[in-house]
Amino acid sequence: MTKYAMIIDLNRCVGCGGCDIACKSENNVPDNFHWADHEVETYGKFPDVKYRHIPKLCNHCDNAPCVRVCPTKAMHKKDDGITMHDPKKCIGCKSCVLACPYEAVMYNDKVPFKQWNNKSELIKGGTASPKELKDKSKVPFPNYNPERSLTSMGVREKGVVEKCTFCDHRVGQNKLPFCVESCPASARIFGDIKDVTSQVSKLKGKYELKVRKLEKGTRPNVFYIREYYRV
C-alpha cells in the first residue's frame, strides 16, 4: 500500500523560503499562518558563528498525537499515510494544537482574509475597494486558488484549525506537493517510501534519515538528510 513521505536534503536547501511562499499561494493560507515554515539554528560566538536553516511542516506522523486526541475525528489518517483534517467536523477545541510537538497545527481565531470585505477606497473614484476586486474576481480574494477546494475548504473558517496536507489535492492528480515543485534547489523529494523504485526510497537506502524530535515517538514521515552549516 502507498505510503507518502518527504525527504528534505539540508545540503541542497539554500534557505530561500520559496517553499513557504509556494505553500501559502497554493493552499490559500491566511496571514501569519505557516503550513510550511522554517527555523534557524545558530552556533558559536561572534565572529566565529555558523548557522543552519531547517524547513518545517506537518510531519504526517504514523503515531500522530493530533489524531489521537481529536474528539470528532476531524483530524484523521488516510490510507496513504497523509494526516488530514476535516474543517466541517472540527469544533475548534484546539486539542490537536496542544498535542502536536511540532507546532504544525494552527487555529483560526479570526475571519480569514477579512480585509477583502473592506469597502474603503484609497483615492475616491480612483482606486477600487478590496470588496470590489473580490466581487469582480468572483472568489474570496483575487489570488484565490480554487483547486484547494477539491478535497477540503478553499478557505478555512473562523473557529477551526488547519495545517499542511502534503497538497493532497495535487497528489490525487499525480502531481507533487507545490513546495516540492517550487523548490529551486530540488531540496525536497516526495513519493511513496514503500516503492523501492521511488526516489525517496532510494535516498532512504543511501543516507541516514533524521527526524525532528525523535524522542516524542510520533514516527514522522518527513525526513532530513545530510547537513550544511553556513558561516
Description of the molecule:
- The protein is an alpha+beta fold and 231 residues long.
- It has a single domain, classed as Alpha-Beta Plaits (2-Layer Sandwich).
- The protein has seven helices and nine strands.
- The strands form four sheets. Strands 8-1-9 form a three-stranded mixed sheet.
- A hairpin with a 2-residue loop joins strand 2 and strand 3 (48-56).
- The longest helix has 10 residues, at 18-27.
- The relative contact order is 0.26.
Task: Describe what is shown at a glance.
The protein has 231 residues and is of the alpha+beta class.
Overall mean confidence score, pLDDT: 94
Residue fraction in strands? 15-25%
Count of helical stretches? 7
**Helix-strand pattern, N to C?**
EHEEHEEHEHEHHEHE
Q: What's the domain count? A: 1
CATH fold assignment? Alpha-Beta Plaits
Q: Separation of termini?
A: 43 Å
User: What is the CATH level 1 assignment?
Assistant: Alpha Beta
> Which strand order does the major sheet show?
8-1-9
Name a few traits of the molecule.
two-stranded antiparallel ribbon, alpha+beta, globular, three-stranded mixed beta sheet, 19% strand, 19% helix, Alpha-Beta Plaits, single chain, 231 residues
SSE diagram, text form:
Elements: E1 4-9, H1 18-27, E2 37-45, E3 48-56, H2 65-69, E4 75-77, E5 83-85, H3 95-99, E6 106-107, H4 130-137, E7 161-162, H5 168-171, H6 178-182, E8 188-192, H7 199-206, E9 222-225
Parallel strand pairs: 1-9
Antiparallel strand pairs: 1-8, 2-3, 4-5, 6-7
